[in-house]
Amino acid sequence: MRGITKIYRETGLHANEDVSLSVEEREIHAIIGENGAGKTTLMKVLYGLEPPDDGNIFLRGKEVIIPNPLAANKLGIGMVHQHFTLIPSFTVAENIVLGIEPRTKGVFFDRESAVKEVGRVIEEHNFHINPRTRVSSLTVGQMQQVEIIKMLYRDVDLLILDEPTSVLTEQEIVKLFENLQRLVKAGKTCVLITHKLDEVMQISHRVTVMRKGRVEAVRYTRDVDCRELSRLMVGKSVLFDFEKKEQDTGKTVVELRDVTLLKKGQERPLLDHLSLELHAGEIVGVAGVGGNGLGELEDVITGLRHIQSGAVYHDQKDITNIGPIAMRENGLAYVPADRLFRGSSVQSTIRENMIVTNPRRFLRAGVFDQKKIQVFAEDLAKQFSIDGNPDIPMGMLSGGNIQKVILARELANKTDFIVFSEPTWGLDVAGSEFIYKKILEIRDAGSAVMLISSNLDEILGLADRLVVLYRGKMVANLRNRGVSKETIGEYMLGLKDDFPKKKADAS
Amino acid sequence: MNSAQFAFPLLHNTIGIMTPFLLAALGGLFTELGGMLNIALEGLILIGAFFSVVFAAFTGSLFLGVLLGIAVTMIIAWIFGAISIYLKANVFISGLATNLLASGLTVVLAFQFFGNKGVILFQDLPKLPKFTIAALQRVPLLGDIFLGHSVFVYLSWVAVLLAYVVIYRTPFGYRLRGTGIDQKAIRALGLNPQRYQIAGILISGFTCGLAGALLTLQLGAFVPNISAGRGWIALVAIYLGNKKPLGILIASFVFGLAESVSNYAQGAINVPADFILAFPYLITVAAMILFSIWQHRKSVV
Amino acid sequence: MKHRRTEFFVNTLSLGITIGISFLIVILMILLMSETPLKTMYYFFLGPFTNKYYFGNMLNASIPLIFTGLGIALAFRSSMFNLGGEGQVYAGGLVATFFLLIINESGPAVLGILVALISSALLGALLAGMSGFFRMKWNTDELISSFLLSSAVVLIVNYFITGILNDPNTNLLTTPPVNERFWFLKIFLPSNLDISILFAVLTAVGVYFFLFYTKWGYEMRMCGLNREFSRYGGINVSRYMVMPMLLSGGLHGIAGSVAVMGTYHQCLKGFSGGIGWNGIAVALIAKNNPLAIIPAAVFFAYLDAGAKAAMLHSDVTFEIAAIVQSVIFFLVTARAIHDFIRFRKKEVQV
Question: What is the C-alpha to C-alpha distance for residues A255 and B230, in angstroms, rounded to an integer?
């Protein structure tokens, strides 16, 4: 690819500017960069999902034009998206052949030969998956394998994987890398988009670093180390170094006792007899791999989801299943992981977003006092250095500013416990640092803080206590002193468990 | 009067009454599976009803009339689909617009060509062929209930089978269902989901054209707003039939039976006609509520 | 501020394009169908302004549309669909007539009028509220349930008009006229325009105030834009599935009773036909802004009035109005028109 430029018309964003990339046959080529560096856009251009505004693509020396994914497949280019594009109610084989189905008599879908052909591809590349299984009953790792097989079925030589490890467990990642290495041995080429440095070091042959829509550097992996890549990626080295003052923890603010959350038609509970206390002036960091109960814990502790057994207490008072309104009345503040859909109403103005948790305080004789709202909004905007007039819709702000509006709103009311979920996901370094400073301030002011995050650096840097969930169960509850990332990792993968279930209890 | 004497004609009528529901719902199913709400069934039936009978009268051929009627219905369906999909209009609103267009257009054209905005009779129209097998006519039950209907009835049964095969046994069916479940997935495969949605709407135009043709051709006349809520009932039949061809057959039968029973009750018991006509709507609401209660229970642990 | 102006510009222009296309289609139709196309066009476009009678009647026809448009806008603002407008208007008209016939000579006229307005509002609210309640309780699609209920209600109201409450002194399918004391004052003779247009305008202002200056209105709008966000923010989301439907139904009911007391003075079979559906179009043209609903309703009444004038003075039928209205309906939510204007505007700026 030479001189690729892509400008998104709707936003005027220059996602790619004069980007050139060359990938050699039979290599694993990593593209790294922070969120928004333009990696995914570049690959979408290559896969025919987005037309480039400028630049050319050459395949084995010949210029090609790739108008759509089908054309990309024909040229031997395949892509596995970060979010899977599978139809859950179809079987593995049906998903894989969709679009180029084998037919009988030219009209009918030939299910038998679909299963047979897919089975052949699966065997040839040493995957272990039954083509007749429904996709909805597969694990995330298996779904990804289906996506890869889908591309192999289309006979591609170049496989693009967009953030393939972000949803996988540690073992699944190992498995994935084994698979990729085998594919390369068999003559395929892989492009791996990621922002995880250790993965780059582990598997790739070459690496292209992107930053702000441009190529920052291209290196052989054996010639670089993590630190240099990190420096190239962010421009300056990230060192999570917070000044955290020691502080004694206060009384118990919120307590979960034996909280269990079930899902219909699934035997394993989403949350399994979880007991946990949050103390005043303490940050409890909750870690875990996706799908192990983090999101569910977020929903339960904020009252959005009802539990089937167990209890929740606030200041000794039973608040089990009282719902989000009463939870807020009990002093909850909450910065959700889904900030665009749950945390804000993007079509409403910033001002309207700011008053949602307590509109009553702006009423005078039953009518909104617009002036008071205006003063309030401007005040928050100043305090949290939010760029943007309070009259514009929330959706016109950048991700970092949206998060600031949410944070400002949540802290505006009196609160004694606050839940953060993935507070810095997708934010740039400056934005993240701002959020971190605020979290520490809240803690120092004596609130109980729960920090749910998949970013281990964040958790290790901020938390006073570490909790790890594995399969909905708590497997660790430690003071954050001298705990290493590796240790947390072992807990997250279920290799270590401080609270093994006694068999007698279970039966 | 024994029960067979009462029940057989009742069921016989039911089969006649359910046919437009069934046809429209089967077509609407394709739209629904493609992930779009087809509010326009009502208007499409009306268009089909008007143009089939008019073309049949002009050409003197039932077959040509139905064919051209279906063609016009599909054109209107395409307009509905194109505005919803390509111009990105709200599919519910453009569905309502289609219904409004249908009731306006049919009356305007009726006035233009026949100078009449009321019932238009077509006296020279040939009768709809009825399907009977003399040998089987004597077989009890079969003869009394299932034979002696117009060809449309049997066409609608073939349509059920055809819908099943197309939806579950052809690449088109897979892609259409895939579109309804996850458009992005279909696009990522290099397929064009909009094409399948348009196809789903055109199919609904086809079957609604048939359903409308049945209404006017068996009457030999066009009556303003002859669709009379059948498209809406068909829409509900899709949901009640759990979006499956066989389920739709059963749901259509239930609605047909309700109307058939109310027709009988109208003559037999002294209940005002308006109440009885309101009955199917109320049954449908009740069925919808029960259905959603059941779904609700299922989703809550 | 700049953002708002752009938004306004885009909305106005896309509406202009929509109306322009619909007018082009009507001109085309008239050219094809009329023997005297110029005369027909004259009456279609300018007929409503040729004399006081037509003009006043056009304004009068907009009154119920303002109420139904407001009712639909309130529901839309909360992401609820009230498709049962037809039945709610009709039932409102019937119940108002019923009480006015009973009250007849007794008590002050104002009291009777109040009873009529309140009873029609309550019945309309009940009918629409049921669908809201089912939605809240069991997630029953309110769009279809409100439509089906309304279809049944129309038939049941027909039964009353042609049965128990039928006027024996006339061959018309109608109830007896209500006492003259309850007729609204005509303010623009010889036309039918009556004093209730002021009431309609005041209601629009009231709804605007409710939506943008009260807590309920605010919470309702938030629920309409994003229910997940509202639940998260501590808004009682279930309440705002029922309340907007109650208000919407209430406004539809009032549309019915106002039409009875202002225009018909009796409950005529089928008098409400189209008022409910057109309310939806009016709300959409007005982009659910209560104040914009007034001109939108007048515009819709203008199309009807034009078609009527064309029918009386020329050789086309009244239903061409339905075709124009359907074209507007088709295009009014078309996002592509919006995007196209935005895109062009950006290019010009660059």
Answer: 57
Element (H, E) at C321: helix C320-332
Number of domain units in chain C? 1
- Locate the domains of chain A by residue range: 2-234, 252-506
By C-alpha distance, the chain B residue nearest A44 is B188
Q: What is the nearest CA distance from A94 to chain B, expressed in angstroms?
A: 8
d(CA C149, CA C163): 21
- What gap in Å lies between CA B46 and CA B48, rounded to an integer? 5
Place of tokens 């696009």: B187
- What is the topology classification, in CATH, of domain A2-234? Rossmann fold (3.40.50)
What CA–CA distance (Å, rounded) separates A188 from A186? 6
Please state, as a whole number, how many other Cβ atoms lie within 10 Å of the Cβ of residue B301.
10
Would you place residue A14 in the very low, low, confident or very high pLDDT band (cuts 50, 70, 90)? Answer: low
Q: Domain residues for C72? A: 52-276
Q: Which CATH class is domain A252-506?
A: alpha beta
The answer to whether C69 touches C282, Cβ cutoff 8 Å, is yes
Beta-carbon contacts of residue A222 (< 8 Å; ≥ 6 apart): none
> Which amino acid type is present at position B155?
L
Distance from CA of C67 to the nearest CA of B (A): 20
Structure confidence at residue B165 (pLDDT): 95
Mean pLDDT computed over C39-62: 92
Residue C185 lies in a domain: yes
Of the candidates B92, B100, B274, which has its C-beta nearest C277's C-beta? B100
- Residue C239: inside a domain: yes
Q: Which residues pair with B121 in a beta bridge?
A: B221
Task: Let me know if A248 is exposed, middle or buried by CB neighbors in 10 A (0-12, 13-18, 19+).
Answer: exposed
Partners of chain A (3+ Cβ pairs below 8 A): B, C
pLDDT single digits (tens) A381-416: 888 888 778 888 888 887 788 899 999 999 988 888
Choose the closest CB to C144 out of B88, B236, B295.
B236
B11 touches chain C (CB under 8 A): no
Optimal mutation site among C28, C76, C330, C342, interface B, most CBs of chain B within 10 A:
C330
Of the candidates A28, A56, A52, which has an alpha carbon nearest to the alpha carbon of residue A42? A52
**Residue-by-residue DSSP string for B15-34:** HHHHHHHHHHHHHHHHHHHT
Which site among B170, B172, B189, B298 would you substitute to test the A interface, given the most A Cβ atoms closer than 10 Å to its Cβ?
A: B189
Residue C140 lies in a domain: yes
How far is Cα A184 from Cα A192, in angstroms, rounded to an integer?
12
Give residue-wise pLDDT tens across range B100-114.
Answer: 999 999 999 999 888
> How far apart, in whole angstroms, are the C-alpha atoms of residue C19 and residue C2?
26
Q: pLDDT band for position A84 (50/70/90)?
A: confident
The CA distance from B83 to A69, in Å, is 26
Query: What string of DSSP letters covers B130-141?
Result: EE--HHHHTSTT
Q: What would the 3-class secondary structure string for A326-362 be?
A: HHHHCCEEEECCCCCCCCCCCCCEHHHHHCCCCHHHH
- Cα–Cα distance, A278 to C132 (Å, whole number): 40
Q: What is the mean pLDDT of chain B?
A: 87
- The string of DSSP codes covering C234-302 is T--TTHHHHHHHHHHHHHHHHHHHHHIIIIISS-BTTTTTTHHHHHHHHHHHTTT-TTTHHHHHHHHHH
* C-alpha to C-alpha distance for C134 and C305, rounded to whole angstroms: 39
Contacts with B26 (C-beta within 8 Å, 6 or more apart), sequence order: B156, B159, B160, B163, B207, B245, B248
Binding-face residues of A in 241-260 toward B, CB within 8 A = none
Segment among A428-437, B48-57, C254-263 with least mean pLDDT:
A428-437
What is chain C's percent helix, strand, coil content, to nearest 5?
A: 75, 0, 25
The verdict on C333 touching A (C-beta cutoff 8 Å) is no
Say if C311 falls within a structural domain. no
Distance CA A460, CA A456 (A): 6
